[in-house]
Amino acid sequence: MAVTMMVVAVGLISPLHAQEAAAAAAGRVEIIRWSIITAGFALAIAAAFGALGQSRAIASAVEGIARNPSAAGEIRGNLILGLVLIESLVIYVLLISLILFFVSPFGK
Amino acid sequence: MEKLEHELWIVQAVNAALGPVVRAMLHALGRPVPASGDVIPDFLVMSALIVVAWTILCLVLRRHLSVEQPGRVQILIEDGMRAIEGMMHEYIGHTAPRYLPIVVAMFVFTLTGNLMGLVPGLKSPTSSLNVTLGCALTVAVYYHVQGIRAQGIGSYLKHFVMPPGAPAFIAPLMLVIETISHISRVLSLSLRLFGNIFGEDLVVLILFSIVPFIVPLPVMFLGIITAVLQAYIFVLLTTIYLGGAVATDHEKHEHGDMVAGEV
Prior knowledge:
- The complex is a heterodimer.
- Chain A is mainly α.
- Chain A has helices spanning 2-23, 26-67, 72-103.
- Chain B is globular, with a radius of gyration of 22 Å.
């Protein structure tokens, strides 16, 4: 869910930022351009593999609940915990991407 | 993104009222004073707003509490408290009610803070790393202190160097690993909350700047889910860390390895 929104965010931020970058000094443009490309790809890869990991976790949990419905509560708790820990890795990449977008540490 | 956001009136009002005092205090303490703009940042104003609002709400509620005829709000809050207590009981055991106040306070603060971003004229304080890092540091200090109180300082520190049943030569390695793991808990707690709420607000903001009508609504609805989920998760991880810190060896064997593997 959040992963999907992050992908949406990347798709929508880039045109905004590209306009700003075009007005910047010529030497910095190249670096900023590459940081945007890097940030986009980093988030795309993180979202893809995070989604893969989450899907595996959910599939196993649903299978487990289907086999033993009485254990649903405990499985659900562990599932949410696992999903959160997977998702926080994607969030780290989101933060790195946001830093690359807005701060551009190498474009200064 | 400053250009997309306009100044919040409540922040302006607070800065107009308290700004000169804070400026003078900063100057007296020898801290750097910002030359122009707001001296009180908006996340501080919003955090204070949450505290004040909940204090007033609870003071009003306290008058209407009753054992014989509980009102709707009382039943709602009691159910919520019971749900949190049940979750805590699962991970901490029979000593769980001792730690209920701070966990509920954290839940209330993060939940309100997360949801505030969806209200026009307000901003999520949790979309600032300062606030989430403050919450995470509070949790970290609290569970260390409670761990020492529950087990004694020697026994608590022994957990850092020697997991039960491990050979002695592994101790130096374990010390490094455990230290890194406890620092990374603070980092992951704060960055997770900050990243989720900041990202969420950013998506809504960008959608608003492109299509300022109807289109951001589904995303804002997802924002409600994210806000509640992240508050719950913050509290869940707090509970798990607390449970890991205060559990004695005897209780740990009862609960199995549930509290061992998390970051």
